[in-house]
C-alpha cells in the first residue's frame, strides 16, 4: 500500500520549482503596485485636520510598498535559484493519488450549491440536492453492477435528505440560527 | 492571591450545573471528532461553532468554544496514530512516532501516551495562564500606541518566520492580510477604501467568513483532491496511560509544556509549531535519539504535550493584548468580541470574571478530554471509517451556514468562497495561512496605533524606536527579518562565532 502524504504546509515538504515562485512574485508585484496606486488616488483630508498622518491611503500604501518589496525579494530569489535558466526547470513529479479532476468536480459542485442554489431554493432542498449529487458523482463507477449502483443512489438520496432535514432542525430549533 | 483563588472557585462552581456539564460533554466530543477527521481543523471547528452558538448565553457559548478547541487539538492525534494522517496540522508531528507504534501493534499504548501527554500539557498551560496573564495584563497597561504598533508588526513577522515553511511567503501572506483588513470604511473620516461602490464591502471583510473559507472550504477542496485515507489498525491494545511512561519522561513533559506554552504566547504561531519545537528539543536532549521516528514513546509524548500546552498559551495574549496566539485562538477572540467582551489590557479591569471563567473552562475541558480519551476508542474508529465523499459535502453545508449565520448576509457566503479558493491556491503555492489570518485580525490594531502614534509625535518616528519596550520589539522584529535572509543569517552566525571564539582564546 502506498502511504498517503500528510496534509500540506508541513515544514518537511519539497519546495516549488523556482519558475512557479517567479510567476507568484509577478502576481504579488502587480497586486502591490495596484494597492499603492489606489491608495495614492485617495483623498488626504488635509484641510480638515491640517495633517496627513490620518490620510485614508497612508497605511494601505505602506502595505502595498512592503508587498512590492517582498515580491521583488521573492523574484530575485527565484531567479537566483534558476527560474530563468533554460531547460533547467525542475518539474514536480505528480503526487500519487492526487487528482485535479476530483478537485474541479468538487469546486464546481460547491460553487453550484453556494452561488446557484442557496437563496434560490429552500435551504433543506438545496442541501439535499447538493449532498445527493456530491456523493453520487464521487462514488460513481463505470463498471458497477446495476444492483450495487441502485443501492448507492438510494443511500446518497437518504444521506442527502437526512442532512437537509437535520441541518434545518438542528440549526433553526436547537441553535436558533437563521438559514440562508 | 486568595481573592484570585476564591474568584476561580466561584467561576468553577458556576459551571457545575447539569446543563453546563452537558454542553461540556457534547462540545468536547464534537471537538475530538472534528480534530480526528482529516480535513477538519480546530480553527474551522471554533469558527463554525462561534457562528452557531452566538444565540447562547455568552458564558455558555465561550465554554463550548474552549471545549471544541481543547478537544480538536487532542483529537488530531487519533488519526495521526491510526491513519498516519494528522487530523489537524497540529498533529503532523505525532505521526512520526504514533504511527510506527500503531504498526508495532501498540496503537492503544500510543493513544494512552497521547492522552496523558495532552492532558498534562494542557494542565501545565493552564497553570501558566493563571500565573502570567495578570502579570502581562498589568505590564500591558503601560503600553502606548508605539508598543501596540510593534506588537502588531512583531506578530506578523514572527508568524511568518516560524509558522513553518518559507518565511518570505509568510511575510507576504501577513501583509496581504493586513491590506485586506483595510478594505471598507476607515476609522478617521469614514472614507470607503477599496469598495468601488459595493455597499456590502463598506463594513469590511468579516473575520469568521474568511476563517471558515481558509480553514474550511480550502480543507474540503484539499481533501477531495488528495488520496483517500484508510484505517490501518483496527485492533487496539489497552489505551490506559501507563504511569511508568509519565514518570520516566517527566522532564520531557515539563520541557515540552514550557515550550508549548511559550510558542502559544507568541502571536500567530500555534499548535503545529509548538509540537515540532517540543519534538526537536526532546530529540536533542534524549538519550534514545535513535528511536525517534521509529516509534519513540518520548517523541510522541513531547509532541502531544507541546501542542496541548500551546492551547492555553495561545489564549494568554488574547486576554492581555487582544493578539491571538494561534489561528483557533483568533476565532476564539472573535467570539469573545461578538459576546461583548473587550479582549486586551483593560479586560482584567473591566471584566476580570472572564479571566477566571476561562481558566475554569480550560480545566473542565481538559478533564472532559481525559474522560473521552480513556473511553472513546471504538466510536472514533467508526467515525474515521466514514468516507470523505460522504463527509465533505456535509462539511461544506456547515461552512455555508456558519458563514451566513452571524450577519445573515449572502455576501458573507461569497466571502467564504473567495477565501476558500484563494486559500487553497496559496496553500498549494506553499504560503502559510496563519500570517494571513493574523494580518486580518491585527489590521485594525496596527493602523489605529500607527496613525495615533504619528499624530501624537507630530510625524516623528523616533518614539517608535526610542521607548524601551518599543525599541526591544523593533530590534527583535528586525533581527527576525534578517535571520530569514540566508546571507544575513550566515553573517550573524559568523559574527557570533567570532565574538565567542575570540573570547575563549587564551591571551
Descriptive account of the structure:
The complex is a heterodimer of chains A (180) and B (507). Helix content of chain A is 63%, strand content 0%. Chain A is mainly alpha-helical and 180 residues long. In chain A, helix 5 packs antiparallel against helix 6. Chain B is mainly α and 507 residues long. Chain B has helices spanning 2-14, 18-36, 42-52, 58-83, 92-103, 107-140, 145-162, 167-181, 207-225, 243-248, 250-265, 271-285, 297-321, 327-338, 347-350, 352-375, 378-384, 388-405, 410-428, 434-456, 463-466, 468-483, 486-504, and strands at residues 184-185, 192-193. The longest helix of chain B is centred in the first third of the chain and has 34 residues, at 107-140. Chain B is globular. Chain B starts with a helix and ends with a helix. The model of chain B has no long low-confidence stretch (mean pLDDT 87).
Tally of extended strands of chain A? 0
* Distance between the first and last residues' Cα of chain A: 44 Å
As residue ranges, the low-confidence spans of chain B are: none
Counted by DSSP, the helix tally of chain B is 23
How much of the sequence lies in strands of chain A comes to under 5%
Subunit arrangement of the protein: heterodimer
Structural class of chain B: mainly alpha
* Head-to-tail CA distance between termini of chain B: 53 Å
Overall outline of chain B: globular
H/E element sequence of chain A: HHHHHH
Overall average pLDDT of chain B: 87
